User: Fold this.
Amino acid sequence: MANYMLEMRNIKKSFYGTTVLHNVNFGVKAGEVHILLGENGAGKSTLMKVLSGVHRPDSGEIMLNGQKCEFREPAHSLKKGIGMVYQELSLAPNMSVLENIWLGNLPKKSKVFVDWKMAKRKAEEVFEKLDIPIDVTKRVSKYDLGLQQLVEIFRVIYQDAKLIVLDEPTSSLSEMEVRKLFETINLLRSQGVSFIYITHKLDEVFEIGDRVTVLRDGEVIGETVEDIKQVTKDDLIKMMVGRDLEDQYPKEPAVTDDVMLRVEHLTDGKNFHDVSFSIRKGEVLGVAGLVGAGNSELAEAVFGLRKIKGGKIYLNGSEYKVKDPVHAINNHIGLLTRDRRSGLIGHMPLYVNISVAQRKSMSNFGFRLRRKERAQARDYIEKLRIETTSENKLLRNLSGGNQQKVAVAKWICNGTRLFVMDDPTRGVDVGAKVEIYKLINSLTAQGDSVLMISSDMPELLGISDNIMVMQKGRVSAMLSAAGCTQEKIFEKMAGEEAHISS
Amino acid sequence: MSNQNSETGVSVTKEATKKQGVSVGVFIQQFSPILILLLLIIVMSFANENFLQVSNFINIIRQTSILGVMAMGMTLVILTAGIDLSVGSLMAVAATSMAVAATAGNVPAPLAVLLGVVCGTALGVINGLVITIGKIQPFIATLGMMTAAGGIALLITDGMPITGIPASMLAIGSQHAGRIPISVFVFAAVALISWVLLSKTSFGRNIYAIGGNSEAARTSGIRVERTMIVVYAISGFFCSIAGIVLMGRINSANALMGSGMELNAITAVALGGTSLAGGFGSVGGTVIGVMTIGVLNNGLDLMDVSAFWQRVILGTMIILVVILDAWRKRKFE
Assistant:
């Protein structure tokens, strides 16, 4: 027992009568990457919030280096060497990389003046060591999400954290940036820094993890897996979900011969150029690309959120001029946004979120038909198996997977035929992913089409009929999903860069 | 009253009670505006025996009806996460333009009133256009409008009060129907219209959606710009109505008649529990907020507290309410 740097013993926590953590035991050794797995709602974030001092446990104790600790607030746990990096970045976008890294912790000369030279030197050192091309004096918002995430991690490290909690750090990173992150983790691990690593991507578990703990319904399932090589992905899924998932990618092809959407030489003059493709009715066209490849922007452009500089779009054979989202909706196009917060209205009830995009059928001379809205929501809750206490529940109180189902319901109910989905299973747990895939099947079975942008390669291969690969704003390949491999997609995605990392 | 009006208000209560049982904190959070008002009424009635009389309450409603009408427009604006600092100036432009038209211009009273209302509403539309098309923050855009429209009102009147306005135009602000002043009915009608708009129409739902998350509103096919312009136009329209009432009350119109009203209107909305960040709040809340200000002023008057002290007390209340709003957000979002 003595070799744990951090030990959480018999942690119990309940909120308003609902027990969220039942006697959780959890230990982290010095210099290890400890993977914490579990579906959404399993208690991972509550456990981490207990650790960081956001929540107090009802009972149980936290031992840090053999000493009993009680964390009052995040600043306190940080002082004790526990740093948190959350999914949502907490950088100051208008300040430089340098300032962000040292925020609140700038090195001082004679206790008063900021020692900028030393701050700069120390920051540059690390980036150079890892060969990350970044100018620390530039504003942090100039860099894409991936680099920002790394900056966030370095910030915690510079505060002398000995244990760093990473909550789904790769969800917005490109393949390349994931490599950099892993290199960083490896380097720090060899220096004795420990990590608690929360993820939904099971491939990462085996790549970076030393030990694994699986949480389900607030309990540790079995015990911490001491040797990661003794378990398989399927074992882990079984532990997380509590049952076998017969098939992670239940694809049912339904492609017809009729073309739904044809895009020719589309360009926005900035993010994507000369993009041509077509989607048939019942087809799922996957779009692969690194961050910055222009695929999200392409999705926004088709939906009318972005101005188009050139090229043409044909919808069901006739030309479709992109105008604005209202025009897209009237033409039966719907967009599931990459960030659920920019597509769903978190502070409003579930039923409003489902009916909000119906421009005509839910009102009578401008007056809302609330009873009809509610009835419709109840209908979809049942049909799509949305887990909620009622249709009045505020959307933001639903889990990620259920929010995504609401997003799909919102577009189904107003007669959408072309679903543009930007990373539909981002941050969604394994069980809910399968349900979303089944939902996609039911759409294509009716002859609807799906343009699915995804950063998840197995998903692209498992769910798409065809895959369009984009690289730096241009289409670099059109592949049939059957017989395609991850390596092939990656090669086309990264182009010449692929050789450096592999 | 406060919870049945608000889309989001209802569900917060339902959700909160479901999750937490009946918790005192939630109760206070949800009903704090009305609790503050009741507390104030109790304190005032102990402090002065004349306070708790029907005639005094009619008086309070009469005194607050002008503020109430403006605060309704302000509620819509603040729900979209905006602010309208120009309400006082728009009111002055509307009132002075109709007064000048009817006196110096010899325009028939109904037409003069129409002209004034159109002017006030048009300036509201300009607010909306500057904010949406010009992409200027509402605070700055309406601050500019406050100054510019204030100047317009001075130009219209040449800096002089306009008197000799036809009696028919003054009736709304000066006449009674039985014991009850007509202005009270005007306030009630405006409040009712606002309530119907917010809680019964798609337009109202769109306002809540935009205020809480304008990006999501846009991707859901809500015409964000159009809705915002209409909201600022409504604010301008309500200001014009308030101008007619005030004109009748003071029997004249002048360029400074609305100065300082914007802050009172914002205070009323905030006291009513509407989030200044948008997306959460209700008409009922604002009615309570307006009444709170009215009760405070009236009670302090009866207690012979000087107008200077009243300002200090009101200012303190504004700050307390904003602290409450911040606390509410931290605790429940």
User: Anything to note?
Assistant: The interface with chain B takes residues 15-17, 303, 305, 325-326, 328-329, 335, 337, 341-349, 352, 356-357, 359, 362-363, 366-368, 389-390, 392-394, 397, 410 of chain A (CB under 8 Å). Confidence is low (pLDDT under 50) at residues 497-502 of chain A. Residues 175-190 of chain A form the longest helix (16 residues). The two ends of chain A are 39 Å apart (CA to CA).
